[in-house]
Amino acid sequence: MKINAARAVHWLSELEPVADELMNRHINAAREWFPHQYVPWSLGRDFDGPLGGEPWRPEQSALAPAVRSALVVNLLTEDNLPGYHWTIGAQTSRDGAWGAWLHHWTAEEDRHAAAIRAYLHATRAVDPVALERARAAQLATGTLPVPDGVLGLVAYAAVQELATRVSHRNTGRLSGDPVCDRLLARVAQDENLHMVFYRELLRAALELDPDEVLLRLDATVRAFAMPGQGMPGFAALAGEIAVAGVYDLRVHHDEVLAPLLRSLRVFELTGLGPDGERARDGLAEHLARLDARAARFVERRARALDARAARN
């Protein structure tokens, strides 16, 4: 379903007062924080290069390989902020409430990459040369989500912000490092508030035209892919992250899609037309298939981990 220009303008106009109200609510709920206060600077020391410090070596990292991979994926995803800013501005507006939110959101998101990179450097958790090369390659690909119109953008962002929150939070919990856990928990708080903004926009849109919104939500959920898809070696990194339980099909179903659709009361809506009913049926079918795939993945992972343990 493609959104034509007239409908896009309609939705921008209809939802702008809601965006303004939600941004004010967000500003009142958000709490100021400073990335430099979450970085263990006392652990840092010079690297090799112009300063003649010590080269990075794998044994300097105290983190498990899967946690390192998750941190790299999370960081490179955050690094792509210029592209996300452009995409949101192109699908909404850089003026009025939409523009105000875009710039406020960008300012908050920008500190995430700064804080995570500083933590990784100070703790020597990952190879800094490989990390910088991956950052440059990631941005050079120009790979970005391409939502269709303002409804597509709002639907995608609601799912993606929640998925990012969950990924950061799970990475911190599995890190074994209280400093990392604290930092990523703080980043996840930002992501949660951003998710709430987009989720509540979706809720407001459902009240205006549930059929059209469900069509867009169904299409978005079916085609959803995290924005890190374009980064070098993403498939291998994602596989490692899934095996570790940071983010996998079970997490995507249980902690992202199901809670979001439940909060929006999608399966309790009444008065839908044929298009809305079909879209809702499509969402239910997608959840059921995803649940079945997640169960198979969890079973295969358990067998593989048991076999690995037996070998060791």
UniProtKB/TrEMBL annotation:
Keywords from the named record: Fatty acid biosynthesis, Fatty acid metabolism, Iron, Lipid biosynthesis, Lipid metabolism, Metal-binding, Oxidoreductase
Cofactor: Fe(2+)
UniProt xrefs under Pfam families: FA_desaturase_2
Similarity comment text for this entry: Belongs to the fatty acid desaturase type 2 family.
Quaternary structure and partners: Homodimer.
Protein name: Acyl-ACP desaturase
Species of origin: Kitasatospora misakiensis
Taxonomic lineage of the native organism: Bacteria, Bacillati, Actinomycetota, Actinomycetes, Kitasatosporales
